[in-house]
């Protein structure tokens, strides 16, 4: 269970450009389920995913991951949790330019010290899942938007995470690729993976996969429905 | 096993990181190498010069007595030496035969000398390595030199001199007394100057005074004066080099400072991404450590090797303007290769270490912030 208790996130607190991106957010997300976040642009979806994924800390409120309070953990524990628990698919991809698609996919596994040949093989497998086997050695900046998005997804899966956080994972994919993505999510769900998605895409939020749909507006949860 | 593999991954990633910013890193490496090259050249050069000077002085006699007539140099009668030896405190007096000879054909200056012990047989000579190189002459070859009367004389080469100090021997011709007198026209019973050994350094001045009283035509030169002359010559040259050295050192500081303060937006973003996907702060620091080490070690090694070649194999060609007077006097002069490891270690710790630190510190700052904040 992931529990968020009365979360608020204020950017640039105390400055003239202070902005309250989230307030009064309380949520319970169950493990092994698929949760979809929806809401208009600027409503705070990405901010919320960042907090859940240990990329940032809330200004106030507390977050529990399987009864463990993570809000106040020191940075090195958060790093450890990010690596061992989460696979994060960023809205802006956040791939590293100048190196190949395959290397990008392998990067999260470097600190595990896995043998290079095995890691390569696994990275290639992930790329092939998304029909990118042929682009493995292409540098990121030469990939199309949809290809880059799929590399970002493959990277999130490399450490076989227990929880996948996907921020607009289908924004750059056509409907065929979007459906393929959802098929892969379905397999992962069947294997017991928790999936948290933020999306504008009906293919995602109308999918039969979703167990819980959370609707957001102006930094608040306006609807939290189990299906 | 996993730890080794872990390091290997990070080193691999560092290298591909460096390669992907080829232009920027190539520029960085060249500037760095150039600075190290200048610093190391100056260090090698001043050190080698000082060493040469020390060797010259070690062999210099305590007092040299010359004869001058209305300010012009004259050969000195050897009989005067016998009288000078009777002065209290003088241990020995040796009449010396030596001089310079300008070679029109090769436009070179030679130093001719008759050694105190083990002179060559008449008809054979020893030559310095500079002359050997220039004239392509080797032991047992026959070599000709033009004497004071413009007529050539031939000699058989006995040895090539290979002394500790190139400054002393590079342009040297060692010959027998008979050949020297014939070559230079100095008559028997006369010498170029007299070299004195004196028991007590405090007596130098009184002995020098007694000699001038005895022979008003003489000019005694005391070792401390010689030392001063050398110090002036070497000091002036080192002084100029110190200016070059400081300029290069300053350039290095500015260069390192720039690194320390500037982490490009792209670099910050990458650190954020690496943290976000699960890299530890220590992994990022390790990567930056490798980055700094690879760049600075490469520059250090290449820069020092180039400086060595420059100073000892091309006779510090780039410092030629500073050494103008020198090169006419010693046309084929080469410094004896010599590296002071203490000095190299100092240079290493003053360049490689600060550079690596300035690579790590700003990254460390970026790596300890929440990844979310760094990525934006
Ligand atoms: N670091 C930041 N500093 C200041 N404001 C921020 C920061 N991050 C986000 N915001 C603001 O917080 C609000 C919520 O942003 P967020 O990215 O969470 O929205 P979103 O729901 O993901 O929108 P979209 O659907 O367009 O992706 C936005 O108005 C954004 O401008
Ligand atoms: Mg968003």
Automatic annotation (TrEMBL), chain A:
ABC transporter domain segment(s): 2-227
InterPro entries recorded: AAA+_ATPase, ABC_transporter-like_ATP-bd, ABC_transporter-like_CS, ABC_transpr_LolD-like, MacB-like_ATP-bd, P-loop_NTPase
Cross-referenced PANTHER family: ABC TRANSPORTER ABCH.1, IMPORT ATP-BINDING PROTEIN
Gene3D superfamilies the record matches: P-loop containing nucleotide triphosphate hydrolases
Top-level division of the source organism's lineage: Bacteria
CDD domains: ABC_MJ0796_LolCDE_FtsE (cd03255)
Keywords on record: ATP-binding, Nucleotide-binding, Transport
Molecular function terms from GO: ATP binding
SMART domains listed in its UniProt record: AAA
Lineage, highest ranks first: Bacteria, Pseudomonadati, Thermodesulfobacteriota, Desulfuromonadia, Geobacterales
Chain segments annotated as coiled-coil in the UniProt record: none
Organism: Pelotalea chapellei
PROSITE patterns linked to this entry: ABC_TRANSPORTER_1, ABC_TRANSPORTER_2
Name of this protein: ABC transporter ATP-binding protein
TrEMBL record, chain B:
UniProt keyword annotations, A-Z: Cell membrane, Membrane, Transmembrane, Transmembrane helix
Transmembrane residue ranges: 26-49, 238-257, 297-323, 335-357
Protein's membrane topology: Multi-pass membrane protein
Main location, first listed in the record: membrane
Residue ranges of coiled coil: none
Cross-referenced Pfam families: FtsX
UniProt subcellular location: Cell membrane
Residue span(s) of domain ABC3 transporter permease C-terminal: 243-371
Family affiliation: Belongs to the ABC-4 integral membrane protein family. LolC/E subfamily.
Name by which UniProt lists this protein: FtsX-like permease family protein
Source organism of the structure: Pelotalea chapellei
């Amino acid at each position: 269970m992931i529990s968020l208790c009365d979360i608020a996130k204020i950017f640039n607190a105390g400055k003239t450009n202070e902005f309250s991106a989230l307030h009064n957010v309380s949520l319970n997300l169950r493990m092994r389920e698929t949760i979809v976040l929806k809401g208009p642009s600027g409503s705070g979806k990405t901010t919320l995913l960042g907090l859940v994924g240990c990329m940032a800390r809330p200004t106030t409120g507390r977050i529990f991951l399987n009864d463990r309070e993570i809000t106040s953990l020191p940075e090195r524990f958060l790093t450890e949790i990010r690596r061992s628990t989460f696979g994060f698919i960023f809205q802006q991809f956040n791939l590293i330019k100048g190196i190949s698609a395959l290397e990008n996919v392998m990067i999260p596994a470097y600190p595990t010290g896995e043998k290079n040949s095995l890691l390569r093989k696994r990275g290639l497998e992930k790329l092939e899942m998304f029909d990118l086997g042929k682009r493995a050695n292409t540098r990121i900046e030469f990939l199309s938007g949809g290809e880059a998005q799929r590399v970002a997804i493959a990277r999130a899966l490399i450490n076989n995470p227990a929880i996948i956080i996907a921020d607009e994972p289908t924004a750059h994919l056509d409907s065929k690729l979007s459906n393929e993505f959802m098929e892969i999510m379905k397999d992962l769900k069947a294997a017991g993976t928790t999936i948290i998605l933020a999306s504008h895409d009906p293919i995602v939020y109308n999918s039969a996969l979703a167990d819980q749909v959370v609707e957001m507006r102006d930094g608040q949860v306006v609807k939290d429905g189990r299906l | 096993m996993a730890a080794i593999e872990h390091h290997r991954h990070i080193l691999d990633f560092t290298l591909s990181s460096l390669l992907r910013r080829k232009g920027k890193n190539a520029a960085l490496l060249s500037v760095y190498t150039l600075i190290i090259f200048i610093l190391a050249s100056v260090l090698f050069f001043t050190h080698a010069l000082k060493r040469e000077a020390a060797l010259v002085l070690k062999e210099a006699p305590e007092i040299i007595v010359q004869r001058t007539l209305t300010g012009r140099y004259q050969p000195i009668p050897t009989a005067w030496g016998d009288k000078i030896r009777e002065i209290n405190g003088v241990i020995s007096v040796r009449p010396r035969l030596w001089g310079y000879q300008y070679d029109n054909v090769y436009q070179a200056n030679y130093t001719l000398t008759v050694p105190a012990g083990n002179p060559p047989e008449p008809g054979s000579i020893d030559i310095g390595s500079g002359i050997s190189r220039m004239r392509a002459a080797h032991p047992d070859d026959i070599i000709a030199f033009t004497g004071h009367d413009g007529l050539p004389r031939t000699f058989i080469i006995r040895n090539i001199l290979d002394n500790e100090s190139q400054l002393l021997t590079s342009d040297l011709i060692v010959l027998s007394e008979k050949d020297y007198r014939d070559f230079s026209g100095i008559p028997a019973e006369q010498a170029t100057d007299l070299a004195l050994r004196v028991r007590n350094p405090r007596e130098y001045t009184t002995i020098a005074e007694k000699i001038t009283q005895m022979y008003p035509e003489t000019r005694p030169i005391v070792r401390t004066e010689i030392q001063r002359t050398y110090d002036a010559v070497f000091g002036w040259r080192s002084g100029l080099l110190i200016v070059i050295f400081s300029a290069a050192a300053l350039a290095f500081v500015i260069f390192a400072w720039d690194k320390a303060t500037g982490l490009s937006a792209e670099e910050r973003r990458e650190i954020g991404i690496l943290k976000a996907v699960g890299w530890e702060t220590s992994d990022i620091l390790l990567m930056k450590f490798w980055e700094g080490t690879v760049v600075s070690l490469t520059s250090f090694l290449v820069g020092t090797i180039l400086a060595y070649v420059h100073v000892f194999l091309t006779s510090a060609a780039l410092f030629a303007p500073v050494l103008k007077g020198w090169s006419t006097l010693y046309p084929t002069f080469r410094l004896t290769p010599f590296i002071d490891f203490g000095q190299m270690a100092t240079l290493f710790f003053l360049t490689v270490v600060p550079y690596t630190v300035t690579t790590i510190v700003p990254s460390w700052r970026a790596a300890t912030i929440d990844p979310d904040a760094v990525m934006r």
